[in-house]
Queue: 4 jobs
Job 1
Amino acid sequence: MSKILVTGAFGQIGSELVSVLQKKYGINQVVAVGHNNIPDDFEGILEKADTRDKDSIATIIKKHRINTIYHLVSLLSVKGEIDPSVTWDINMNGLKHILDLGVEHKLQIFWPSSIAAFGPSTPRENTPQHTVLEPTTIYGVTKYAGEGLCRYYNIKYGLDVRSVRYPGIISWKTPPGAGTTEYTIEMFYEGLKTGKYECFVRADTVLPMMYVDDAIKGTVDLMDAPSEKIKVRNSYNIAAISFEAQDLEKEIKKYIPNIKVTYKPDKRQRIADSWPKSLDDLEARKDWGWKYEYDLPRMTKVIIKNLRIKFGIE
């Protein structure tokens, strides 16, 4: 039986997606590819490789008879600005290797884009599916270019490549990372650990967000949809919740009444201000039935509950 390959399997999305795919298809049908930060307690099929090394990925595909790849490897917005050349190499050259191998082996490919593909000239309210994309970060540039590359491979080679533009993804299982929307999970972590948090965006900053369970479900649903249903081959808008940073603070205070949140915007504020506040996801809902389940109160309750268990807090 053919297997599923997940690159970037131990990042924020990958660590959750691998578990869901293992439950859905069986632990022996999912191959997790990691490069760094591989947990010692991982259960399943593991391969170590760098997606910039095309030959090593080709070997894994042949070894395990892979027919589907979820290619999640990417440097995010803040970390990506440190070295744009490395970001381009990882985000774009790695993607092109995967697409080329997809054509060669007739694979189905998932690749995530992001709201970072938009820019300050994009309409910020109810951002349309088809609109101006003029990103101002190297991360955003790679997502914009990646969307075009995916669409090109579908048109030229008939490759079944599918994508969504993730909003800010909020997950409690992995520690906060180097993304502009990571203030959300930092507020949970620091609130429970120290009772205080200095937020790096303004209190009134609004960005589109999504609980990770919704993101994973949407990803799998997209890949399960019949090919004829997929009308957008660059990347679908998917939306869930948009809120101000201070709205999250208010929800968290229902569970941590004494938390003290201050706001001290830094360079990440400029990035946040270049991104949409809300997204129009009508085409995803119409084409393959996308819908979210977690609103802000439900998400907050679930995250607080699980982090208290994780941190051993009564």
Job 2
Amino acid sequence: MSIDRLEFDFNPINRSPGDIQEYAKDGAYVCGLTLEGAKWNAEKNCLCEPDVMELFVKMPVIHFKPIQKRSRALQNNYEAPVYYYPIRSGTVDRDSYIMKIDLKSGEQPASFWIKRGTALLLSTAN
């Protein structure tokens, strides 16, 4: 299949990185992402309200699995932007935006998480 007909399916896995001993059959396991502006509900596998004064939350391991492009958009989904670091605008020398990751939006619509500024970060330091 040609690369222009592929996209990723993002599946959070409720296992610690140390517990994963095998390679992904398709795609890759990615760990170390931090969620800003929300919390991850491991039981329901979706976004939820963070605790009071909880600014950053570690995301579980995410399986990036290549799939054929969908004909329809996912329902109850938030396209979370992924940034290298918290300064989202980047600088003249380097951009901050990387890609988007589809996460289940839970009880709130995607517009709620957009207004909240929910995003994934590779680093919480500038």
Job 3
Amino acid sequence: MRALVVEDYPPLSASLTQGLREQGYAVDVTGDGAEGLWYAQTSAYDVIVLDLMLPKLDGREVLRRIRREGNTTPVLILTARDTIADRVAGLDLGADDYLVKPFAFEELSARLRALIRRRHQVATSRLTIADLEIDTGARTVRRAGQPIALSAREYALLEYLAHRRGQVVTRGELWEHLYDFAAEPQSNVLDVYVGYLRRKIDDGHAIKLIHTRRGLGYVLDVEGA
């Protein structure tokens, strides 16, 4: 999953970025609203964490503009403003959630997962495809009841494919949602990671779940389902 963090307090921005990356997110981060708006307009994100008090462009204006342009990316407002009027104003502008500083990172992380599930119309933190079980809260994976150890990048790839179960996901979409601006596209890196994932998920199982659609991309599902 790919997240945009728009927060102008460097220590908080750094801790958020580190925490999210440790959870497998690709993270773009900026400290001013104008650049945050540019990021939101030029890239596809799974979730945006947005402060309100920002230099150059206020967070409310950032939110107002991206919603006016039809951008439906889930937005979590992160702010010290804790009055009911502030919360109502933020939600009415199109925010999907509102978290007041100070906060526990665990709560922010859980709220982001909930926003992503809602976007993909998934009701719980457990995704099940045949005998494959993915717990997006604990970030654990099992196949036929046996735990599977995945790297952060492998897990992020699997989770994104699982949220798009049964749909062809192009290499371009995968790159856009799994890597941030700092990453340099390489022609075969996604194929390599899909290969790693296929060996861990499908090897030794009669029912294969990861399928290549040549010239198109990848599908996670039971073949013919």
Job 4
Amino acid sequence: MSNDILFLAEFTSGAPARSAIELATGAAELAAQSGGDAVALAYGPGAASGAASLGAHGAARAILLGDEDRPAITYAPAAVAAARDGGLALLAPATPNGRDLAAALVGLLDLPAFGPVRAARVAEGVLETEQATLQGSVITTSRPVEGTPAPAVVLVLANTFTPGDGGSGTAEVVEAATAAESALAKASVAESHEAEAKVVNLEEATVIVAGGRGVGGEEGFGPLRDLAKALGGAVGASRAAADAGWIPYQLQIGQTGKVVKPSLYIGAGISGAIQHRVGMQTAEHVVAINKDPDAPIGEFADLFVVADLFQIVPALTEEIRRRKGA
């Protein structure tokens, strides 16, 4: 078994997805610990011409699975062929496409799986991962059982690895080995609809302004959207707000919604129950605005503002706009 760290690198519209850049950085970090190389499994429109650019983010090699505009799951047979040679770990983004391919790899190659994880490292040649369990109240460290097939598939949350500015390096690009016949390669898209950008970008947003029951209704998200726009971020919500029909379920954060890891998370009118906390607890900085001084979110917020969100949020938005214009 090699000590290489493989990672799925999706390309869209001729460029690597943010998840591909993040995982290139993470794979390079883990490869430095394992003594191997970071190896991309590149696929999607633009992969053929752009795979070499992943070298700027740490990839030593890139295996080209294909560059057609087709469902990600159809690349599973090529990914299986590429992963058969082994490696210590294969990193997959916790995105819809990443989950599909990760599940196919685990099932077809009988590989161990971990995730979604919040951290990973290689200690004494052994992969270790960290993930939240028991609704986020416990952080579990896991390792593959000795003797299990390799590579271990690791589903990685967005923003787990922070990419740098990139360098001038290039990755060596090789074609994937011929894949075996598979029904997965015949999958096709029957119908598709464009999602709003704010929905698409929620898991990758570095700033999130989220609202809960305290916003009072659909119109209560107006000030939150203004603040998110001023900060260049995205709007999210608690399950209570989504269940009430005030905001699309695609924007729900928590145990039954999205798991996010922004640099800044602003929760307005959110109590901070454990079901919501599990979806945002790895945010670097948490600011809470709530009229209830005993709201659970105050226990883990970096800054807890006990006040009416409809007074604080507009004032904060105006101040940010003023400073940007200064």
